[in-house]
Amino acid sequence: MSDFVAPSGPVAVAEAWTKRTRRVAAIYVALTKPRVIELLLVTTVPPMVLAARGVPSLALVAAVLIGGALAAGGANTINCWIERDRDQLMRRTRHRPLPTGAIDPGRALVFGLVLEVAAFGILWASANLLAAGLAIAATLFYVFVYTIWLKPRTVQNIVIGGAAGAVPVLVGWAAVTGSLALPALVLFGVVFCWTPAHFWALALRYREDYAAAGFPMLPVVRGPKVAATQILAYAVIVSALTLTLPLVTTMGVVYWVAAALLGVVLIAQAFRLRNAPSAERAIAFFSLSNTYLALLFAAVALDTLVRAR
Fold this sequence. Notes:
Layout: H1 10-31, H2 34-42, H3 45-52, H4 58-82, H5 84-87, H6 97-100, H7 105-126, H8 129-150, H9 157-161, H10 163-177, H11 182-205, H12 207-213, H13 218-221, H14 224-242, H15 245-248, H16 253-275, H17 279-308
Helix pairs in contact: 2-4, 3-10, 3-17, 4-7, 4-8, 4-10, 7-8, 8-10, 10-11, 11-12, 11-14, 11-17, 14-16, 16-17
């Protein structure tokens, strides 16, 4: 058997440092829940386009996206810090950095707080105080109202707590106009009413996980059939609400057609889940709801740009 000689020298040291840096960076990024951030940012830019009645300053868009990503990432990191013990009990979350011990809890908390400070500074400097204040208010609501108070105590946790996820709509609008208006509030309402159906589908898929962690999610407490019925109800509500946007601002045929067709698809999928509330159909609805929201907000932006030409 040949002797093994560990690599040494400047090149080997640099490679080892690079690997370690990437590993540490991946841990910190995982804390921010990047997939959740992506969805939040999807609801930020179209309201900016609608508010500007065209393409807003690209520098402003970039700054708002960066600030919004930092704020959402900070909120998610603090959420991971608070729920680290419960995350160990759930198969879906036990591999996150804190339950596995990949990072010290104190460092994770500091990281989350630093992200919030950076987000506030960027949004205030690049947009205005209202946009920055709304972003931080969403974090405070998400952490203290949803994560600490509602989530462990009531089946209606996501109904109320979902307001935090709808705030990026207001941040985008406020960044352009420095104020809020009815179109922004309607879009806020759309995301607010979309959230329970979206999240309950995920909770239905991972019902055993949430039960093990002691979270009183609707599918755990009331059962799959009741949860699926509520999902259908909220699918109808959010679809109807999307059709009120043209009542408070000028929208064209692109939006009308998209909102109507997307609503039909969402309700049909929810009705299918209601008839057979299985884990497979629940996760299918969850995935569809992501696509629904992205396409709906894309239609807002596209319709505005088409009419601005």
